[in-house]
Design a protein that fits this description.
- The protein is an all-alpha fold.
- The chain has one domain (about 1-280): Rhodopsin 7-helix transmembrane proteins (Rhopdopsin 7-helix transmembrane proteins).
- Helices cover about 80% and strands about 0% of the residues.
- It is built from eight helices and two strands; from the N terminus they run ααααββαααα.
- Strands 1-2 form a two-stranded antiparallel ribbon.
- Mean pLDDT is about 75; it is low at about 1-10.
């Protein structure tokens, strides 16, 4: 009787949460589409001639769009089925959900490295024709991780969504493939930007000539604009790191699970705010 009541309560909470999650994710999808249209209009058929800020904005909102589209599809499926899917359906949904979440992780790391090289070394990293040097790791590494996890049967349903199988311990796929990657990415990004900030402060005091100041100001503005997208990533997925660590030790409360998912689906809206702020100031 108790198990039946708990199951019913969880299902009701899941349904009650799924509907607002779909609404928020849908708003993110709409904003992402608007930004993509504006960027393509700005490119006038020469997308790869756009500034790196515009290209990073495009890639960020594109991965956002795909991530939120997967969230909406997952939420609708869950609402219609009155529960979380199982088996191969859950594995496929987990791959789509986590692929585009991971893509944003690696894109944020590459963006931080780009800014680091620009400010400290004074040169821009070449991403190659069609930005393939950026896109290959951003798409390929997550896909390889997820296909391997699926092959070992590690993509399962949990209490709120389809993802890594939740097993307690620090050697589980969930800890190594989810928590550790998110935490290391946030730490890497934070360390890089702290170094950049310290360097900019030191150089600002050292620079004397007007030409040097103008060059430094342009580089710093570019770095600041790109760092806003990275900041959104930290806000968007920081809660997942807390949830991932908690899961590795014990069962987290549903409120924490829902809070981390809400933060992840509002990222598209935050990226929209960042993009329109940059667009207005340039």
């Amino acid at each position: 009787m108790s198990n039946s009541t708990n199951s019913s309560t969880t299902a009701s909470a899941s349904l009650a949460f799924g509907i607002p999650m779909v609404i928020v994710a849908f708003c993110s999808v709409v904003i992402c589409i608007i930004i993509i249209v504006l960027i393509f209009k700005k490119s006038a058929g020469s997308f790869f001639q756009l500034k790196i800020v515009d290209r990073v904005a495009f890639y960020t909102v594109t991965y956002d769009l795909l991530f939120y589209a997967a969230q909406v599809a997952h939420g609708v499926h869950r609402a219609l089925a009155n529960g979380i899917p199982e088996g191969i359906q859950c594995s496929l949904q987990a791959i789509f959900l986590l692929e585009f979440a991971y893509s944003q992780t690696f894109l944020s790391i590459i963006t931080a490295i780009f800014v680091f090289m620009l400010i400290l070394k004074g040169r821009q990293i070449s991403f190659g024709k069609y930005d393939w040097r950026m896109q290959l790791p951003v798409i390929g590494i997550p896909l390889a991780i997820l296909i391997t996890a699926a092959g070992f049967g590690q993509l399962r349903s949990n209490r709120t969504y389809c993802g890594f199988r939740e097993v307690r311990g620090l050697l589980s796929w969930h800890f190594l493939g989810f928590f550790l990657i998110v935490v290391l990415s946030i730490l890497t990004i934070t360390i890089l930007y702290l170094i950049i900030w310290c360097y900019v402060r030191i150089e600002s005091n050292r620079i004397k000539t007007t030409l040097q100041k103008q060059t430094a100001v342009r580089a710093n503005r570019l770095a600041f604009k790109l760092s806003l997208f990275v900041l959104v990533y930290v806000v968007q997925f920081g809660g997942n790191a807390v949830e991932g660590l908690w899961i590795s030790i014990s069962e987290p409360p549903l409120s924490l699970r829902y809070a981390s998912i809400v933060a992840s689906v509002t990222g598209g809206i935050l990226n929209g705010i960042v993009y329109f702020t940059i667009r207005r100031t340039t």
